Amino acid sequence: MQFRSLKGIQDILPPESYVWQKIEETSRETFKKYGYHEIRLPIIESTELFTRSIGETSDIVEKEMYTFNDKGDRSVTLRPEGTASLVRAYVEHHLYNEPSPQKYYYIGPMFRYERPQAGRFRQFHQIGAEVLGSEDPSLDAEIVSMLNAILRRLGIDGFDIEITSIGCKTCRPDFKTELKKSLADRLGLFCEDCNRRFDLNPLRTLDCKVPSCIEARKGSPAIIDFLCGECSRHMNGLKHGLSLLNIPFVINPNMVRGLDYYTRTAFEVTQGSPGSQKAIAAGGRYDGLVAEFGGPPIPGIGFAIGAERIVPLIKESLTVRESPDLFFCTLGKEASEKSFVLTSQLREKGLWVEMNYDTSSLKSQMRKADRLGAKNVIVLGEDELKNGRATIKNMKDKNEIAVAFDAGDILKAISK
Ligand code: HAM
């Protein structure tokens, strides 16, 4: 019986796993400089956590969640994103009692039952950052600039930072009324989902990917033209902050986020030709979510990078494979035991050492060392054992150095 991984769920194999490590390390280093702390959140949560925050009428909640009843007959869901869990943890552990703003980051898998295609998976990984406790727009600019710094440090360029404001409790109702008025006589042109969601949440019609809906909504009003004074000032503050930091951005008045918790600032980083998979990272403000989860009225903002979408963009991608410092080729049991001990001692001293584990010929052992890209090779055979000395061959410059069977001696010779 042969098994295969599930559709839309992939293994990350070496050498690509080195690219993942690089992405994670660069992100962690950058987060540290901006004062973010890692938070490790559960992969599984109560279903209601997501339905309440992401929104009953969102595609994620309606169609994409991995939801099932556990053995205790409770409805649970594999997390489709990290923000809801983070805010749950923030409220549950009263983290708002710590000095504000609180800055957190997380790295891990998320699950959405989407139609798999290039850049879109059912298990994918996000590198997310969230700040709670300030609504100052300079923080919005700072978080966008941190996202920009991570991507640039990874050598990614040619992306657009798209920003917008999607208003607040004050201005959004007026916009919804206006949008409904504008679309009412065209509803027949929209898909079934849009029609069903129209009364509950007409904003969803702006996010629908069905081509006939994209066509039908052309010319409909944009929320950015309906912002209240506070939201306009906030948006101007974000633009000013980004300009001070020299971060290029474009305003995309048509951006609609697929999650309902957003207020005011929303942004997406896009790369490549227009198409649904071009968002490599996205985020925004969610000033009502902490209160929605039973905490004090504390504002929040964050983003998540889609790791699968940046892996192919990292230039040196598949060439970062590292290689061992030393490979022991051995002939006979005694030599094999000697190298077994020396290998262990040299690893203790910090070297990456590989040895031969079977009785294959010297030629095939040399081929193996070559395939691994070993920087140095030692051959241990009868003669070497008799003399108590062996030769280290540097595989790059072909230099040879005689050494004793001593880890210190070998280390010295290799470090030369
Ligand atoms: P999101 O836009 O749903 O936002 O996802 C963020 C990023 O995750 C996307 O821009 C994309 O790069 C990646 N992504 C989403 N779905 C998939 C998929 N099926 N396969 C591969 N990559 C995917 C959020 O999740 C928010 N929690 C972000 C946020 C944090 N907002 C505030 N704080």
Question: How much is the radius of gyration in Å?
Answer: 28 Å
- Chemical compounds bound to the protein: histidyl-adenosine monophosphate
Fourth-tier CATH superfamily name of the largest domain: Bira Bifunctional Protein, Domain 2
Stretches with pLDDT under 50, minimum 5 residues = none
User: How many domains?
Assistant: 2
What is the rounded distance between the termini?
52 Å
Broad CATH class of the largest domain: Alpha Beta
Annotated CATH architecture of the largest domain: 2-Layer Sandwich
Largest sheet: number of strands, sense, barrel closure: 8 strands, mixed
Output the structural class: alpha+beta
Strand content: 15-25%
Report the mean per-residue pLDDT as an integer. 94
Helical coverage, percent range: 25-40%
What's the total count of β strands?
16
Biggest β-sheet: strands ordered side by side in the sheet: 1-5-6-11-10-9-7-8
- How large is the count of helical segments? 15
What is the strand and helix layout of this fold?
Layout lengths: L15 H18 L3 E2 L5 E3 H8 L4 H6 L1 E4 L5 E4 L4 H10 L9 E10 L11 E10 L4 H17 L6 E6 L6 H13 L7 H6 L13 H6 L12 H16 L5 E2 L11 E8 L8 E7 L3 H4 L7 E7 H4 L15 E5 L2 H16 L4 E3 L6 H11 L3 E5 L1 H6 L1 E6 L5 E5 L2 H9 L1
Parallel strand pairs: 1-5, 7-8, 12-13, 12-14
Antiparallel strand pairs: 2-4, 3-4, 5-6, 6-11, 7-9, 9-10, 10-11, 14-15, 15-16
